[in-house]
Amino acid sequence: MKLGVFAAVTVVGATSSRGSPVQKVIQLLGSLQEKIKADGDAEGRQYDKFVEWCETNAKDLQHELDNAASDIEELEAAIEEADSGIEQAESRISELSDSIAEDEDELKKATDVRNSEHKDWAAVDKSLAETISTLERAAGLIKKQIQGSLLQLDQDAMQKVVVSLSALVDASIFSTKDTTRLNAFLQAQQNDQEAPEGMKTILSVLEDMLAKAEGQRADAQKAETEAKYNFEMVKSSLEQRGKQQQSELADSKKELSAQREAKATATGELEVSKKDQAADAQSLRTLQSDCMQTASDHEASVAERNEELKALAKAKQVIEEKTGGADARGSFLLQVKATTKMVEDDSDDTTGLVSVVENLRRLGRQQKSMQLSLLASKASAVAAHGAGKDVFAKVKKLIEGMIGKLLDEARKEGAEKAFCDKE
């Protein structure tokens, strides 16, 4: 507006000698109104584009925030699921480890028992084998004696049999009756006497004892076979279950590793998503702040432009109402008002004050007005001895005083012209 008013002053000064100055000023004010409106329309279009840009970017940022919130929710759920998977895998690993340890301990105990049983059986089997061998030899010698070949019988061999049979007297596998008869036979042999019950009876006793020994040995071997079979079944079952549990344990460890890796990945992605969400939220706040500030600036600009349009409209009205037919005086008055406006607009610019003084002098020469020349001199003196806003205030006061005098003169001239026209 400052440049527009200054241009108006310059044009009016240059054209005051041709045409109607008041009409020229009114036309110029109208042109300024149109320019201000055009500038306002252009600014409005730019502002509409800016609003659209704000809405688009705000929508995009909000979409990003919504996506980030969804991603964060999914990642938190994934972490929770991974924690559950880790807990289950660790629990299963603990169960399998305990079960494997128990089975290994059970197999060790079963093996120890089996080894002990086999050792006991081996000792019993060896003893029974020796007993059976002794009984068989004794029975063979007695059979030979019964058959009449006792005189040719090897007495040393018989003596060994007697010694061996002596060890069987206390054997628990034989009945008391059998051991009593055997003992009598042995004593007779030691005393070189004939057996009290006869050789056939002793042979029968030995054969009966042999049968018992063989039966017990057979039973012991059968028990050993069954015990070995049962042990092998238990061992096979424990080993098979151990292999299965070892496989499950390996799978559980792999699952635990996978769940931990999934949790670590989700945790890392969650951290990135939260940072991105915070950055987008900050960007949205900055965008909203900038857009609101621009909206406020635009609103202030519109209000200022409306005030300028009101001022121009009021200026045209004042010119039309106050000047009447005094075009030259109206032009002169308008230029002085414009100069006053320059003082207001340039109140913070020393160069502007110099321009005001020069403009007053130029107007004084163009209008051949002593009053304007005197005003220019006073303004120059004030400018030379002062500084800052106080100087502009003094100059403005001088100009306003001049305007008041000019208005009075314009009214008087208008009244005289109206009287003359009427006469």
Question: Which keywords apply here?
Answer:
423 residues; mainly alpha; 9 helices; 90% helix; disordered N terminus
What is the structure about, briefly put?
This protein is mostly helical and 423 residues long. Helix content is 90%, strand content 0%.
Can you characterise this structure?
By secondary structure, this protein is mainly alpha-helical. It has helices at 2-15, 21-146, 155-168, 176-190, 199-322, 327-345, 350-367, 370-385, 389-422. Helix 1 (2-15) packs antiparallel against helix 6 (327-345). The chain is rod-shaped and about 205 Å long. The model is unreliable at 1-19 and 325-349 (pLDDT under 50).
Architecture blueprint of SSEs:
Elements: H1 2-15, H2 21-146, H3 155-168, H4 176-190, H5 199-322, H6 327-345, H7 350-367, H8 370-385, H9 389-422
Helix pairs in contact: 1-2, 1-6, 2-3, 2-5, 2-6, 3-4, 4-5, 6-7, 6-9, 7-8, 8-9
